[in-house]
Amino acid sequence: MSVYDGKHTGHVSASVQGDSVQGGGARRADAQRNRERILQAARDLVHEPGELKLNAVAKACGIGQGTLYRHFPTREDLLAEVYRREVDELVAAAGRLLATHQPLDALAAWFDRVAAYARVKRDVFAAIEAATWRDLAAHSLGPIGEAVEVLLAAGRLAGTVRADAEARDVIVLISWLSRLDDAELDARGPRLLSILVDGLRAHR
């Protein structure tokens, strides 16, 4: 049989195609890893004094600046995505905590996660344009409010959260955390959140 026979050629093509698919999958996985490293480095560095520099982010995660720019063309794009990811993780935490904790305990544990979110929100919003952070805040309010309502509804059903507690009440109260500096957040944050949990507790 000739190596140019259609059947033989098809076999070679399938093999090459399989290698190409595997190679593409590896490249996508590598690109996703780079993206996660960039976001984590930016999350850490935005907390440092001074303006966040993209070259510092690239250096911190050991990639070239070209790779960083392919993922995030501008500093504002990067910081906006840092905030969006923080919101996504905060929202997802509500369901995970309810799966392993009693409703009121899940709410208290979620508030601990809120304190970390508040630091990121404060630092990111201080580093980006006002129009951008207003847009980010407007789009995140709905998902965060829904996560709060999931936690409150579980507590109301269990009889451990007061019946008149509303998600909007909680959002208003926890929003103040992002206005505190690190010293105040460390000193007052846990106590404030404990007071909030006690205020949401159903009176028996």
TrEMBL record:
Key words of the record: DNA-binding, Transcription, Transcription regulation
- Note the PROSITE patterns from the entry: HTH_TETR_2 (PS50977)
Q: Which InterPro entries match?
A: Homeodomain-like_sf (IPR009057), HTH-type_TetR-like_transc_reg (IPR050109), HTH_TetR (IPR001647), Tet_transcr_reg_TetR-rel_C_sf (IPR036271), TetR_SbtR-like_C (IPR049445)
Q: Where is this region: Disordered?
A: 1-32
**The entry's DNA-binding region:** 53-72
Instruction: List residues of the HTH tetR-type domain.
Output: 32-90
Superkingdom of the source species: Bacteria
One Pfam family name from the record?
TetR_C_43
PANTHER family with a match to the protein in the record: HTH-TYPE TRANSCRIPTIONAL REGULATOR BETI (PTHR30055:SF234), HTH-TYPE TRANSCRIPTIONAL REGULATOR RUTR (PTHR30055)
Q: Give the protein name, as stated in the record.
A: TetR/AcrR family transcriptional regulator
Q: Which species is the source of this protein?
A: Actinomadura napierensis
